[in-house]
Design goal:
Belongs to the Glu/Leu/Phe/Val dehydrogenases family. Keywords: Branched-chain amino acid catabolism, NAD, Nucleotide-binding, Oxidoreductase. This is Leucine dehydrogenase. One of its GO terms (molecular function) is nucleotide binding. With 364 residues, this protein is of the alpha/beta class. It has 2 domains: 121 residues, Leucine Dehydrogenase, chain A, domain 1 (Rossmann fold); 197 residues, 3-Layer(aba) Sandwich (Rossmann fold). Helices cover 43% and strands 14% of the residues. The strands form 2 sheets. Strands 1, 2, 3, 4, 5 and 6 form a 6-stranded mixed sheet that branches. The protein is globular and about 55 Å long. It binds 1,4-dihydronicotinamide adenine dinucleotide (NAI) and 2-OXO-4-methylpentanoic acid (COI). The site of 2-OXO-4-methylpentanoic acid (COI) has 14 residues, from helix 10.
């Protein structure tokens, strides 16, 4: 991979490679854009097959956070970390403390939180070494695990997408296929079950599947069968790039609305959904509940204030469909424009010199 060429493609600011032999830490921090403020984005731990795959994931996820934070109205830039390793076997205390020291070295340019493969306990270890971490234990005055809040945002965003597709935002009686029933999707299934939706779930982890069957009466299918189910809504809640040339022709749903980051393998797959009349709730808008919640910690966490902002996801998704219709563009482009316009407005207004400028971290 020609790294600088790849970074120039979407004007990435910084890639940081962190290595600690003692703990086995191999991490890549991607800081995409800090126009709006310090970069905030979670840390993913995953057993990547190759280093190139890990770099590419960090790069795609970091840029996604720039768009997510901008579209959510947060005063934060975008970044993400990937740690190479198996989260079930390779974690240790020293690893997260070493990682915390690397974050501290960035002096506030990057703030972390949970993502796939990392937990509140891991964030607490990072917190031993740096304040630039969110999603730590509520005992520290923090907001804790962001997943239930992300799930709530997906639920209300899905209702907004249902209104667009079916003319009614009720999910009662709707069949929802759910790919991956992990931290986010378990709570999403709970909301959907409580509203009377029917669930078809899949996961590569049988325990996770069984929990959804026991708790919500979900029907299960094999991982490769999830795309072709007769259903109303598809909720991708596992990994990215699952809307692609292979899967789109299999879809029978009218809505795609889920938590996974980077659902479209390539942008043209968003065009393809549009051409098939499938309503797509852009991932970085519908899944912003978690980051909205952890970002509130930077002001001194207030659950009521954070949840009020999370509730705006319904209106944001509705607005995106309005812009898409008004301008004759697919929803993913409408969402990108919304984020880019905000970043560009702020970029253009930062012309005055200010010694010791004030920013979101000034209180820390
Ligand atoms: N946790 C959060 O607050 C947020 C999560 N997201 C995104 O949502 C997605 C899910 O996140 P979490 O629930 O936190 O992760 P998780 O790791 O708890 O859950 C993911 C689940 O997907 C399953 N899975 C992986 N590959 C699969 C496949 N090919 N087929 C079926 N199942 C598969 C895993 O076994 C796991 O149960 C990720 O893409 C994450 O980046 C986005 C915003 C916030
Ligand atoms: C898990 C969130 C708190 C942040 C993040 O990384 C995301 O929204 O993808």
């Amino acid at each position: 991979m020609e790294i600088f060429k790849r970074m120039e493609q979407h004007d990435y600011e910084q890639l940081v490679f962190c290595q600690d032999k003692n703990s086995g830490l191999k991490a890549i921090i991607c800081i995409h854009d800090t126009t709006l403020g310090p970069a905030l984005g979670g840390t993913r731990m995953w057993n990547y097959d190759t280093e190139e795959e890990a770099i590419e994931d960090a790069i795609r996820l970091g840029r996604g956070m720039t768009y997510k934070n901008a579209a959510a109205g947060l005063n934060l830039g975008g970044g993400k970390t990937v740690i190479i390793g198996d989260p079930l076997k390779d974690k240790n205390e020293e690893m997260f403390r070493a990682f915390g020291r690397f974050i501290q070295g960035l002096n506030g340019r990057y703030i972390t939180a949970e993502d796939v493969g990392t937990t509140v306990a891991d964030m607490d270890l990072i917190h031993e070494e740096t304040d630039f971490v969110t999603g730590i234990s509520p005992a520290f005055g923090s907001s804790g695990n962001p997943s239930p809040v992300t799930a709530y945002g997906i639920y209300i965003g899905m209702k907004a997408a249902a209104l667009e597709a079916f003319g009614d935002d009720s999910l009662e009686g709707k069949t929802v296929t759910v790919q991956g029933v992990g931290n986010v999707a378990y709570t999403l299934c709970k909301h959907l079950h409580e509203e009377g939706a029917k669930l078809i779930v899949t996961d590569i982890n049988q325990e996770a599947v069984q929990r959804a069957v026991n708790d919500f009466g979900a029907v299960t299918v094999a991982p490769n069968e999830i795309y072709s189910q007769e259903a109303d809504i598809f909720a991708p809640c596992a990994m990215g790039a699952i809307i692609n040339d292979d899967t789109i022709p299999q879809l029978k749903v009218k809505v795609v609305a889920g938590s996974a980051n980077n659902q479209l393998k390539e942008e043209r797959h968003g065009d393809e959904l549009e051409a098939r009349g499938i309503v797509y709730a852009p991932d970085f808008v519908i899944n912003s509940g978690g980051v909205i919640n952890v970002a509130d910690e930077l002001y001194g966490y207030n659950n009521e204030r954070a949840m009020k902002r999370v509730e705006t996801i319904y209106d944001s998704i509705t607005r995106i469909f309005e812009i898409a219709k008004r301008d004759g563009i697919p929803s993913y482009i409408a969402a990108e424009r919304m984020a880019e316009e905000r970043i560009n407005r702020v970029k253009n207004s930062r012309s005055q010199f200010l010694r010791n400028g004030h920013n979101i971290l000034s209180r820390r």
